[in-house]
Backbone:
């Protein structure tokens, strides 16, 4: 495909984006070594794949965009990384992200914000913003990200690339640094549906090291369908509210028309508990995060701050100084909703709501709908700083993506048009473990939609 | 629902997290807003009939109970700040009288 030096050169060219955390010198050296060791018979032989900084790799440090893991080297590869290497892919460095994947703009990184590849005043989305920006800028054909509430699809939509979040349990989480364990899943970015899908097929499948990974064969790549004849596509009315950005609405309407022209049957459906998805997510995700991030204490991983003789003082100062403001906020909210006296009012309610949201999807799919089509985000990429002071406004940019995470379903975002030069993404949500159907429909939509035309 | 300065301090203690004195008012205000926002979940019928949804496999698969080596690609001598004759070297923690 492309040789290691050319890959490194392309990554140097987009340095201004601050998307890559690996120093280019280290990367160049590693790429040459990896290329020499790669199996020429692998299905991804020579394909450079950039990796979000919360996925463990032997090659480079894994800091999760945080000071608390600055310089941390994992002693093992994540299963997804081991599978990529076995397929001959080259690990093309670690990408900048919101700290511990908490954020929707990649402004919450201890290593500075990532710049949108098409407009330097805007954010690339998040939390996998570095991966999205590198694919969007054409520096790599594919990249890994992670999803807890939309952290692959939302930046894919903002950067005009394809982003897939697989079914919960499709890809092993072994070596993915835990944030919200019942929601987390490794996802894939690609220039095209095909690039993303073939990387997904390589990293998917059973893994004895992750008990939440399903005992299934890797995803088999579907072929490009001749038409969408036989597909029933549902449009959930809650995803097209009156206040939806008019250009996003126009792009979605055009995409729907194109799917109909290819033979798809389209019907309006309802997912009535959608309005509660973001509040549900912002109870469950911080609660799980507060437990998962308890392990960063200045003793087991990374640097310690103000080494004190008193152990608890050491924990507190390390955590207080090592975590950034958004992570601190979420740990506090998560601790609060799990604390005595509040557990029933918040956490138990959120768990019940999660069940109702998952049931909404089952009801629609049980009535013969194959896939759902929605906008990926309510607006195109927003300006840097615009939502930094208002956590809830930031959280609401995930409003159309969190539902698939809560229900554990696969979803894909593909570029469906532009407004004033900024990409707009359309989302297909599939049924659990039917990624192949979802990818088939995405192929058909990708083929027909004028992705870089104004909507 | 309003989170007070003392609430933040109590929660921060539970979370083993130092918070700056000057950051407290803003943190209390932001936590209040977030908790007010998620409080709309009280619209869910508070009965026990809604079964909790857990994604992933229905049951945990057990592995064969065999001892297998899990070789580290990087040896302990490379990971530890100090390693001598097969042991990690740590600071002296205390002394017996």
Residues:
């Amino acid at each position: 495909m492309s040789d290691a030096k050319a890959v490194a050169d392309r990554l140097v060219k987009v340095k201004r984006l601050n998307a890559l955390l690996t120093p280019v010198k280290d990367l160049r050296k590693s790429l040459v070594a990896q290329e020499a060791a790669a199996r020429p018979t692998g299905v991804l032989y020579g394909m450079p794949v950039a990796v979000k900084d919360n996925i463990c790799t032997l090659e480079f440090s894994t800091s999760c965009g945080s000071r608390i893991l600055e310089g941390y080297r994992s002693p093992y590869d994540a299963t997804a990384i081991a599978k990529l290497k076995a397929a001959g892919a080259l690990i093309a460095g670690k990408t900048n992200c919101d700290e511990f994947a908490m954020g929707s703009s990649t402004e919450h990184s201890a290593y500075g914000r990532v710049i949108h590849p098409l407009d330097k005043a805007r954010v690339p989305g998040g939390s996998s913003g570095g991966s999205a920006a590198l694919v969007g800028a054409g520096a790599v054909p594919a990249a890994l990200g992670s999803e807890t509430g939309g952290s692959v699809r939302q930046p894919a939509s903002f950067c005009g690339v394809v982003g897939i979040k697989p079914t919960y349990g499709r890809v092993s989480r072994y070596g993915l640094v835990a944030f919200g364990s019942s929601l987390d899943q490794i996802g894939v970015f690609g220039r095209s549906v095909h690039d993303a899908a073939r990387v997904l097929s390589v990293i998917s499948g059973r893994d004895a090291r992750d008990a939440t990974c399903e005992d299934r064969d890797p995803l088999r790549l579907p072929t490009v369908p001749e038409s969408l004849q036989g597909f029933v596509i549902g449009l959930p009315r809650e995803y097209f509210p009156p206040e939806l950005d008019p250009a996003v609405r126009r792009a979605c309407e055009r995409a729907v028309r194109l799917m109909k022209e290819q033979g798809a049957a389209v019907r309006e459906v309802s997912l009535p508990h959608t309005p509660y998805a973001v509040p549900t997510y912002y109870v469950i995700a911080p609660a799980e995060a507060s437990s998962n991030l308890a392990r960063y204490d200045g003793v087991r991983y990374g640097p310690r701050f103000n080494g004190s003789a008193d152990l608890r003082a050491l924990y507190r100062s390390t955590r207080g100084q090592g975590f950034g403001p958004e992570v601190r906020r979420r740990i506090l909210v998560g601790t609060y909703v799990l604390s005595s006296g509040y557990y029933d009012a918040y956490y138990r309610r959120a768990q019940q709501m999660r069940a109702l949201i998952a049931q909404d999807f089952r009801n629609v799919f049980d009535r013969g709908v194959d896939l759902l089509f929605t906008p990926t985000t309510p607006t195109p990429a927003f300006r840097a700083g615009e939502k930094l002071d208002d956590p809830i406004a930031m959280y609401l940019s995930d409003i159309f993506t969190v539902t698939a995470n809560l229900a554990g379903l696969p979803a894909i975002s593909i570029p469906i048009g532009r407004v004033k030069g900024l990409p707009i993404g359309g989302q297909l949500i599939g049924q659990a473990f039917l990624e192949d159907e979802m990818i088939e429909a995405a192929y058909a939509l990708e083929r027909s939609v004028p992705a870089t035309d104004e909507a | 629902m309003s989170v007070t300065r003392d609430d933040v301090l109590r929660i921060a203690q539970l979370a083993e997290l130092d918070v700056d004195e000057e950051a407290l008012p803003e943190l209390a205000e932001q936590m209040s807003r977030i908790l007010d926002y998620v409080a709309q979940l009280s619209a869910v019928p508070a009965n026990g009939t809604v079964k909790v949804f857990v994604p992933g496999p229905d049951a945990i698969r057990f592995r064969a109970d065999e001892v297998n080596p899990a070789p580290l690609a990087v040896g302990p001598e490379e990971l530890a700040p100090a390693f001598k004759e097969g042991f990690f070297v740590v600071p002296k923690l205390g002394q017996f009288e």
Q: What stands out?
A: Chain B has a mean pLDDT of 85.
